[in-house]
Structures are given as structure tokens and as C-alpha cells.
Design goal:
Largest sheet: 4 strands, mixed
Radius of gyration: 24 Å
Number of helices: 21
Strand content: under 5%
Helix content: 55-70%
């Protein structure tokens, strides 16, 4: 039951991989699930061409996600379908990390399987809660592996490896520091009886490992002579993006998460409330991890649903322990948790989830693909494109370069982004228009009323095509 050999984990991965593919396949084909994913793809294209992040192409996220996408493209190709397949496999691997963590902490197989299955379902139902390949989908694998690697009893090598994994996750998104905090507190609380020497040694080795990926990145930018840019976007810019919200808004925000996944929320809180003595460590890490991820979400001060993916890992881990054989349940739950009932529920959830994806994604008109196909038939060699306030994935689909370092259109249209980036919309738009792009795309209306693009479109461009009701293609007049 507690065998953690490679063959066992490989079989677990195959099962989780199959489930993830079944649940997520309807999302593989649409050009855009989330505009952030499009940014990762376009900037990864630029990095593969030799551009430098934070210099030639700019976004407000750490470099890790773009390096990861560039690696995917180099290894497997740049097809969007392949990216979605990789994301499904990534979700399955993350589920395996939860399974492995339960095994190493001597939970039952039922708890290990349940946590993995819960995580896959949580991230595969709603588009903005995990179906779209966002940063959280990718960095949580590193946090899950870091926890599974170092627990239950840290060793010198495992501590360093765990720190390196957390450091890699940190380069994808800085909130991984809160996962690291939860892990550090767990080691401090759980193993203080083994002596402070052991705790300080373990903590020091984890910090050393954590710093290794970060120091490599800083060394790379230093030898490029671009360390100032890295420092600005890593520290000052991140601080500018933090904002505050009222307590009442947060209650609604978190209530949405707990309500959407109500059975899982109940399993989590029931499991940590009634944990047996044999699963005390599972209870401790679940609570600490849940609280740390909650703090990470709150301190960012923004209401983006994909932030919750970070919290899904401790939720799935804790909820899975509800199914541990050592748990003492009410008669109601004993009837519900029978294997026959559970099997029927699993099949029903799979059918329902797949049906939701077909309706939410697969049956929707893929306008970005239509726009890109139309442009491919019209654009001559050497002609250029600016996607305006429409989907930046068009650059990728038409194999065009962005005429501005700010690939994500909101960086030039949102006042908060303009302030944080320290840029002028007018001057950046002037730089774009001086390049005289042959085609400009506008979705409904360009959102900056005083932008010079309005005058330029009126004077030097003509509307040549409308997709749907409001996706407009302008061509430069000869």
C-alpha cells in the first residue's frame, strides 16, 4: 500500500493523464481561452528569435512562464493544440505530486487517489479556474513536487532539491514564496523536538536551493548589462501592482470559490476538523498551506479567478485526506463513500465536465482563427500588422512580430498599467504608428479616447473587413 516505486507512480500518472485528457480535450482547439496565455505564446516566439525579456518584449509577469513556453515550443513545436496538451499533462503531473505527497506521509491509497482526482476536476471545469493554461497551472507543479520531495522528514539533499523547485516556481510567479513559508512553518512546528540544529540546517539548505535559480537569472541579466531592467520589473513594478480591497469584497470573492466547489470545501474542512492522530501531519500541512495561499491571494489585491489555482493544491490535498481509511465518518458519508457510489459519481462528473467544456469553448466561434486566416490570404511579404486592442494571438497565428514591446494590449490602454510601467500611451502609440503597419485591428472601439490612433485611422486607413459584429480590420491606404 505504501510502495512509492517508479512503476507505481508511472501507473498513477497514466491514469491521471487519461482523465485530464478526457476532461480537457474540448479546450484544445480554440485559439484563445485566456488573453494571458496568448501573451505567453507571443513573447515565447520573440524569445526564441533572440529578443530579451524586459527589454525587447515586456510584460508585468516574471520571466519563468515565458522561458517555459519557449522551451515547450523548441521541444514540441509552436502549435496551440500542443500547448493545451502539455497543460493537460502538467495538471496530471501535479496530481501525481499530491498522490506522492500522501504516500510519503503514510496516508492511505484512497486519500492519495482522491487528492489527485479532486485537483484534476477542480482545474478542468471552469475556463478561468484552471482550464486556460495560466501561470498558476505551471508553478503549482513545482510547489507540489517541492512539498512531496522534502516531506515527511527532510534530509540534506531533499532540502536543497525542494528549495530549487520552489525557486523555479518563484521565477514563474513570486507568490510561490507563500508556499515556501507554509512549508518552512510546518518543518519548524512539526520537527522542533528534533532540535534547532536540524531545523536551521534544513531551512538553510532550502534557502540555498531557493536562491540558486534566482542567482542564475540575475547573473544572466548582469552579463547582458540589463540588470537594472530586471531589478525594476522584479521589485518596483511588482510593488506598484499591489492594491487593496474591502473585507466584504474578499468574502464574496472567496465565497465564489468555496461555493463552486462546495463538496470539496466541505471535505477539506471536515477532514482537518476530524483528522486522526495518524494523520496529524497531514492536517497541519493542509491548514498552514491553505492559510498561506489565502494570504497570497489577498495581498495581491485583485479579483482574478486564476489566482485560486494556487489554493486548489492545499484544498485538494486536505480534501483527499477525507477519504483516508483512518477517518471516522458519519453514516451518511459512509454510504456516499462506497466504491460503487463513488464510481458512478466519477463517471457522471466526467460526462458533465466534458459537456460544460463543449458548450463553453468548443461550440464558440473561433474569430481569432478566422481573422488570422483572412489576413494570411491578404498580407503580402514584408507587410506588417498591429493588433490594436484585439487578441495578440494574431501575431502568432500569422507569424508576425509585434510592433511594440508591450504585447498585451492592456499595457497601453489601462491607466494602472501605464502608471506602473512608467510609460506614456501617446509616445508609445506614436512609435507604433511611425512604423506604418499595413493592417490594424480594432475590437469595437479603441478604449483610449485621446489616443493618436483614432486620427490615424480616420486619415490614413480604410475599413476593409468586419468579423462578427465588432471586430474591424483596417488597411493602410496606398
Amino acid at each position: 500500500m505504501l510502495n512509492t516505486n517508479r512503476k507505481s507512480l508511472f501507473q498513477v500518472w497514466l491514469a491521471f493523464e487519461l482523465l485530464a485528457l478526457i476532461l480537457r480535450w474540448p479546450s484544445f482547439f480554440h485559439s484563445v481561452l485566456d488573453h494571458d496565455e496568448s501573451t505567453y505564446i507571443v513573447i515565447a516566439d520573440a524569445l526564441r528569435k533572440g529578443n530579451i525579456y524586459f527589454v525587447d518584449v515586456i510584460d508585468n509577469k516574471p520571466i519563468g512562464i515565458f522561458l517555459l513556453f519557449a522551451l515547450f515550443q523548441n521541444l514540441f513545436g509552436s502549435s496551440i493544440i500542443l500547448i493545451r496538451l502539455i497543460a493537460a499533462s502538467w495538471v496530471a503531473l501535479t496530481a501525481v505530486s499530491l498522490f506522492w505527497m500522501h504516500r510519503r506521509m503514510r496516508s492511505s491509497d484512497d486519500a492519495a487517489w482522491a487528492s489527485g482526482l479532486i485537483y484534476i476536476f477542480m482545474t478542468s471545469i471552469f475556463v478561468h479556474f484552471g482550464l486556460s493554461p495560466n501561470t498558476e497551472i505551471f508553478y503549482v507543479l513545482f510547489t507540489g513536487l517541492a512539498f512531496a520531495w522534502v516531506l515527511p522528514v527532510p534530509g540534506n539533499i531533499t532540502a536543497i532539491v525542494s528549495g530549487i523547485l520552489l525557486g523555479i516556481g518563484f521565477l514563474i510567479k513570486y507568490v510561490v514564496a507563500f508556499d515556501a513559508l507554509a512549508l518552512g512553518l510546518f518543518i519548524l512546528i512539526s520537527y522542533r523536538k528534533q532540535g534547532w540544529l536540524m531545523i536551521f540546517r534544513t531551512g538553510g539548505l532550502m534557502v540555498l536551493g531557493f536562491c540558486i535559480p534566482i542567482l542564475i537569472l540575475f547573473g544572466y541579466y548582469h552579463q547582458l548589462g540589463k540588470l537594472d531592467a530586471l531589478m525594476y520589473y522584479t521589485f518596483e513594478l511588482s510593488y506598484k501592482y499591489v492594491s487593496g480591497r474591502g473585507d466584504g469584497s474578499y468574502l464574496i470573492f472567496f465565497g465564489d470559490l468555496l461555493g463552486r466547489y462546495l463538496p470539496i470545501s466541505c471535505w477539506f474542512f471536515l477532514a482537518v476538523r476530524t483528522a486522526s492522530k495518524s494523520s496529524a501531519h497531514v492536517k497541519q500541512i493542509s491548514i498552514l498551506w491553505f492559510l498561506a495561499c489565502t494570504a497570497a491571494i489577498i495581498l495581491q489585491g485583485k479579483f482574478f479567478y486564476h489566482y485560486f489555482i494556487q489554493l486548489m493544491l492545499p484544498l485538494a490535498f486536505g480534501a483527499g485526506s477525507f477519504f483516508d481509511a483512518a477517518q471516522q465518518h458519519h453514516k451518511f458519508w459512509k454510504r456516499i463513500l462506497q466504491r460503487k457510489t463513488g464510481g458512478v459519481a466519477l463517471v457522471a462528473l466526467t460526462v458533465i465536465t466534458t459537456g460544460i467544456q463543449v458548450q463553453q469553448v468548443l461550440l464558440k466561434t473561433d474569430y481569432p482563427k478566422q481573422v488570422a486566416s483572412w489576413l494570411d490570404t491578404r498580407m503580402q511579404p514584408g507587410e506588417t500588422l498591429y493588433t490594436g486592442n484585439y487578441h495578440q494571438i494574431i501575431y502568432h497565428l500569422t507569424e508576425q512580430n509585434s510592433p511594440t514591446p508591450y504585447v498585451h494590449s492592456s499595457l497601453l490602454t489601462n491607466e494602472k498599467h501605464l502608471f506602473a510601467q512608467g510609460i506614456s500611451h501617446y509616445s508609445e502609440m506614436e512609435k507604433i504608428l511611425k512604423q506604418q503597419p499595413n493592417y490594424i485591428l480594432i475590437d469595437k472601439v479603441y478604449p483610449v479616447a485621446t489616443s493618436p490612433i483614432h486620427q490615424e485611422l480616420n486619415s490614413n486607413y480604410q475599413l476593409v473587413k468586419i468579423f462578427g459584429e465588432h471586430i474591424m480590420v483596417y488597411q493602410r491606404k496606398l
